[in-house]
Inverse folding.
């Protein structure tokens, strides 16, 4: 918690996931949003999924969902795309979530999982 409160994005994301396991949506959203706002690509994808499924009492928004998912695609590490894609599929429950959002990562970037 201390590292997250000091502004470390990976710690913020990890704490958000910890709060998810405790069913604390307010704190889950708080720390995931902090991580996304500091540039954590995976947190951006998670936040996008939250908007697409109106988790954490968020108003469902495909526009904001797409925005955050697109930010997650800026990560040069191709493994991030795979992690975010799997997370989004799990949350949305639909195959081809990237295509649904109008995002089609190149095969070269996507094949790194």
């Amino acid at each position: 918690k201390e590292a997250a409160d000091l502004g470390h994005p990976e710690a913020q994301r990890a704490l958000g996931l910890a709060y998810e396991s405790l069913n604390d949506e307010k704190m889950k959203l708080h720390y995931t949003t902090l991580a996304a706002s500091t540039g954590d690509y995976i947190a951006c994808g998670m936040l996008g999924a939250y908007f697409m499924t109106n988790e954490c009492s968020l108003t469902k928004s495909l526009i904001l969902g797409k925005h955050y998912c697109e930010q997650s695609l800026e990560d040069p590490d191709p493994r991030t795309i795979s992690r975010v894609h799997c997370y989004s599929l799990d949350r949305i429950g639909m195959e081809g979530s990237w295509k649904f959002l109008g995002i089609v990562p190149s095969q070269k970037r996507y094949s790194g999982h």
Summary: Helices lie at 2-5, 9-21, 25-37, 41-52, 62-72, 78-92, 97-100, 107-110. Residues 78-92 form the longest helix (15 residues).
